[in-house]
Design a protein that fits this description.
The relative contact order is 0.16. α7 packs parallel to α8 and α8 runs parallel beside α9. This protein has one domain: Alpha-Beta Barrel (TIM Barrel). Helices cover 43% and strands 16% of the residues. The protein is of the alpha/beta class. The strands form two sheets. Strands 1-10-9-8-5-4-3-2 form an eight-stranded parallel beta sheet. It has a two-stranded antiparallel sheet with strand order 6-7. It comes from Bacillus songklensis. GO terms for molecular function: lyase activity. Belongs to the HMG-CoA lyase family.
Length: 298
């Protein structure tokens, strides 16, 4: 683990909030993002250009993007051509697409097979890259699927290869249902590092079974130094029964800082952001650091 720095990509405003049943007011989302930016995040997922019918929480995507139009490294999720066009109209320069390795997961999520999804996205990615936009590919169910079980490493690597060939800048490889263990994480990310040495490689863990921090350590051992996380551990997966949120940003940062790995993030400011958004969230904040901070002086 030679690196003394790890990059944290904050996904709480998009991945963390998208499945909240009660609508979080737009002004609250904007303030939440502002507080996170004050904490020092350079890369964030802000929102998603998806159908308001299917994801009502993201109906204010345009307002969110306009509020932060001066920061070009804000990432917005654009799952299809319509989403990309909406993002381009607002001069977004960093977009994310997503596909699940599992066919069943994909079909239940977006009513397309994995192959159909890639075929649809490939020309769209190529078009955006011609204009030198930043594209991240989010690879869901990279380890396990709630319907198909364990995913073969070869299938995950093959899907990643298709996106690399299409020209993406980053692969965000996700343990969508929080079932991976450190040995599996080390194995897959070691192979991905070898296969794609020039691509940005990011690990995305959910903490459903309490394994996320251990998996982050395993990814570090595989020389991966980029991690998605969500302030307060917000989020979840509507297609994975019982799946909890993303690993909590404050827990990740606390562990990394204790290990001597810097992130450039102010931990107290992250707690301030979580404290602000907590009243708007329907479920309890389960972050270990946040809850300890509420009752003790760390």
């Amino acid at each position: 683990m030679p690196s003394e720095f790890a990059a944290i990509i904050e996904v709480g405003a998009r991945d963390g909030l998208q499945n909240e049943k009660q609508f979080v007011p737009t002004e609250a989302k904007i303030r939440f993002i502002q507080l996170l930016k004050e904490a020092g995040f350079k890369e964030m997922e802000l929102t998603s250009f998806v159908s308001a019918k299917w994801v009502p929480q993201m109906q204010d995507a345009k307002e969110i993007v306009k509020a932060f139009s001066d920061d070009k490294r804000n990432i917005v999720l654009t799952p299809n051509e319509k989403g990309m066009m909406a993002a381009r109209e607002l001069n977004c320069e960093a977009m994310a697409v997503f596909v699940g390795v599992s066919n069943t997961f994909n079909q239940k999520n977006i009513n397309k097979t994995t192959t159909e999804s890639v075929e649809q996205l490939r020309p769209l990615i190529l078009k955006q890259k011609q204009d030198d936009l930043f594209i991240r590919a989010c690879i869901s169910t990279s380890f396990y699927c709630p319907y198909e079980g364990k995913i073969d490493e070869k299938d995950t690597i093959a899907l990643c290869e298709q996106f690399v060939e299409a020209g993406v800048d980053e692969l965000s490889v996700a343990d969508t249902i929080g079932m991976a263990n450190p040995r599996e994480v080390y194995s897959l990310f070691t192979k991905l590092k070898d296969a794609f040495p020039h691509i940005l490689l990011t690990a995305h863990f959910h903490d459903t079974r309490g394994m996320a921090l251990a998996n982050i350590y395993a990814a570090l051992e595989a020389e991966v130094y980029r991690f998605d996380s969500s302030a307060g551990g917000l989020g979840g997966c509507p297609f994975a029964k019982g799946a909890t949120g993303n690993v909590a940003t404050e827990d990740v940062i606390f562990m990394l800082h204790q290990m001597g790995v810097e992130t450039g993030i102010n931990l107290d400011k992250v707690v301030e952001a979580v404290t602000f958004i907590e009243p708007y969230i329907s479920r309890k904040i389960e972050s270990k650091y946040f809850n300890l901070k509420a009752f003790t002086k760390i």
